[in-house]
């Protein structure tokens, strides 16, 4: 079973995300509408005992406080040889602290779980908008060029829920949600 852990965006961030995708679509950038808008906190890994892992994340969420983040700017970068245009997230100190604790808890749970170089609270937190695997590198870069000077609304969002996402051949789905305290 291939999973990852993250936060599905909601409210203000989701509204802005949808408006941005609509703007890109109107500028002839094809949009993958099935993507679940989220912030990844633990990159994909394979696990055999889902129930035990789910219990771990549920316990962690119960013990963790809601953290804040904002939207900073549009960005363009490469991750695993893939071009990505995204919304850069400005995490609060509480967000960073929670993220570090989550990664530590997962490592202690199973030291054999794969950790990529992106599994770090120091990584650039982001919400992907366009990926080259979906539209090609040229259109992914064009999306960034269209967006780079657009204003990002002042915002403060709550990371108040953790999700376990499951990747399947049909796509990605939210397997479970856990509210933070």
Short structural description:
The chain is an alpha+beta fold and 181 residues long. It has five helices and eight strands; from the N terminus they run βαβαββαβααβββ. It starts with a strand and ends with a strand.
Shape: globular
Oligomer: single chain
Largest sheet: 4 strands, antiparallel
Number of helices: 5
How large is the share of residues in beta strands? 35-45%
Distance between the termini: 28 Å
- Ranges where pLDDT stays below 50 over 5 or more residues in a row are none
Specify the helix fraction band.
25-40%
Structural class: alpha+beta
Q: What does the radius of gyration come to? A: 16 Å
Question: For the residues shown, what is the average pLDDT?
Answer: 95
Output the strand order for the largest sheet.
2-1-7-8
- Following the backbone from N to C, one meets helices and strands in this order, namely EHEHEEHEHHEEE
Please report the total strand number as a whole number: 8
Features:
34% helix, 181 residues, alpha+beta, four-stranded antiparallel beta sheet
Note down, in words, how this protein is organized:
With about 180 residues, the protein is an alpha+beta fold. The protein is built from 5 helices and 8 strands; from the N terminus they run βαβαββαβααβββ. Strands 2-1-7-8 form a 4-stranded antiparallel beta sheet. Strands 5-4-3-6 form a 4-stranded antiparallel beta sheet. Helix 2 (about 50-65) runs antiparallel to helix 3 (about 95-110). It starts with a strand and ends with a strand. The relative contact order is 0.27. The model has no long low-confidence stretch (mean pLDDT about 95).
